[in-house]
Amino acid sequence: MPQQLHYAVAIVGAGSAGLSVAARLLRASAALHGSVVIIDPQAKHYYQPLWTLVGGGVMRKEVTERDQQSLIPKGADWLQEAVAHFRPDENRIVTSTGTVIRYDVLVVAAGIQVDWERIKGLKECIGREGVCSNYDYRYVDSTWRSIREFRGGTAIFTQPNTPIKCGGAPQKIMYLADDAFRRSGIRGKTDIIFASGNASIFAVPKYAAALDKVVERKGITAKYKRNLVEIDSAKREAVFEHVDSKERETLRYDMIHVVPPMSAPSFIRDSPLAGPGGWAEVDKHTMRHVRFANVFALGDCSNLPTSKTGAAIRKQAPVAARNVLNVLGGQPLDASYDGYTSCPLVTGYNRLILAEFDYDLTPRETFPFDQSKERYSMYVLKKDLLPKLYWHGMLKGRM
Ligand SMILES: Cc1cc2nc3c(=O)[nH]c(=O)nc-3n(C[C@H](O)[C@H](O)[C@H](O)COP(=O)(O)OP(=O)(O)OC[C@H]3O[C@@H](n4cnc5c(N)ncnc54)[C@H](O)[C@@H]3O)c2cc1C
Q1: Which intervals hold domain FAD/NAD(P)-binding (predicted)?
Q2: Which pTM was predicted?
């Protein structure tokens, strides 16, 4: 007989967003202790922003991994199952093993789906023979291996034109690779190609101007509006499709860093919570669902029209938690999110441009200097300070 449970707050996903909201709710309300459940099948939690530096050989991937159990805030229960169905009309969710959870308020924070299989041939070769990716803990080691073992030739770095998590990550690893090739003296016999499905290097003009200069200085060839659609690892060929003309172009590679297309998780896309594109459809300021008044969503699985980052979640989580408490207390929603997001654009070992902006793509910089300049201090912030703030501040609901 499947279990039937009831909680005041059910949170789907124990990633950056789910844990931050849970921790904030439990800090704010002693009455909620024992009444919050977090549902997530994954036994491990990953601090994904460091995968760029793992792929660049700066640190080992193990430092990005923690046992999920150790991060579940005190006062919350963890149900280690995958949610399969949403029944928002009945205030219920159902897991893949049939457990039914009734809730007063639901928070959806299930992240983004990485669609490896949408690139023909990729599944068969990812992690081997110079085909690598920072977008999965299983493969992130293969990036540094590919860079380290590269002996010259063509190195390709791809970015799809779908929404992805951390829009800057596909180019950050390319800048590290460029530096690594220079250090090992092989840059002179290397062509670096950035093949992106987007129309420019970055969405915010101020940072795009700075990054265009980095690309030029480093002698990288940028090819825009090209989506990777197929890899033939036996021939070491990558096939790209032009976004508008659909014309195909085949490029030979010696190493290729792949960022696959991404999409809304299928179980959200196929549910009543989905809006256009399949994302959980919420108000962009309150994070409340546009059709179900006791449902909220945030983070990568939501339709919030901002860049999908952990930094954005740092600003979303306090707003979502506050508005959840408002709903539980029968009060009007009084917290609002302005689209703040940030992308620490690593441009080499020891250099970083810290992009920060809002829904209008207007820069919203924290520091009293021009953050579009490459700086060592901002690199240290990303490498040493932000991980500490994540584990000890954000996931604990303290910041
Ligand atoms: C290479 C790389 C570099 C990045 N760099 C940066 C950076 O420099 N700065 C930055 O701010 N961000 C960066 N990010 C992005 C950042 O990691 C994500 O935006 C952030 O983790 C999203 O948080 P989330 O809670 O929405 O999703 P996640 O943290 O991905 O968590 C989603 C959770 O939902 C769970 N889940 C999925 N399906 C189900 C289901 N059916 N039932 C229950 N649970 C489910 C998953 O198991 C997972 O634990 C980077 C990401 C990558 C991959």
Answers
A1: 8-125
A2: 0.98
Order across the sheet with 237-242: list the strands.
226-232, 237-242, 248-252
Mutate to test the pocket of ligand 1, among 66, 115, 165 (most ligand atoms within 8 A of CB): 165
Domains of the chain from N-terminus onward: 4-112+264-339+391-396 (3.50.50.60), 116-262 (3.50.50.60)
C-alpha 94 to ligand 1 mean position (Å)? 22
Return the ligand 1 atom nearest residue 84 CA.
41
Nearest one of 378, 59, 359, 381 to 210, comparing CA atoms: 378
In the DSSP assignment, the letter for residue 136 is S
The verdict on the CB of residue 309 being under 6 Å from ligand 1 is yes
How far is Cα 381 from Cα 50, in angstroms, rounded to an integer?
A: 12
Residue owning the nearest CA to atom 29 of ligand 1: 15
Torsion of CA 72, 49, 286, 327, to 10 degrees: 0
Cβ of 16 closer than 6 Å to ligand 1, yes or no, is: yes
Interval between CA 45 and ligand 1 midpoint (Å):
9
SS3 call for 350: coil
Residue 352 tokens, joined? 């970083």
% of the chain residues with pLDDT over 90: 99
Q: How far apart are the first and last CA of the chain?
A: 41
Tokens at 199, concatenated: 């129309």
Q: What is the mean pLDDT of residues 369-393?
A: 98
Residue type, 95: T
pLDDT(294) > 80: yes
CA–CA distance, 61 with 49 (Å, rounded to integer)? 11
Catalytically active residues are: 166, 343
Residue 1: pLDDT band with limits 50, 70, 90: confident
Establish whether residue 307 lines the binding site of ligand 1, counting it when its CB lies within 6 angstroms of any ligand atom.
Answer: no
Which of the listed residues 309, 356, 381, 382 should we mutate to test ligand 1's pocket, taking the one with most ligand atoms within 8 A of CB? Answer: 309
Residue 125 CA to residue 335 CA, distance in Å, equals 47
82 in ligand 1 pocket by Cβ < 6 Å? yes
pLDDT at residue 3, as a whole number: 86
Contact between 83 and 12 (Cβ < 8 Å): yes
Would you tell me how many other CB atoms lie within 10 Å of the CB of residue 4?
11
Q: So what's the pLDDT on residue 2?
A: 78
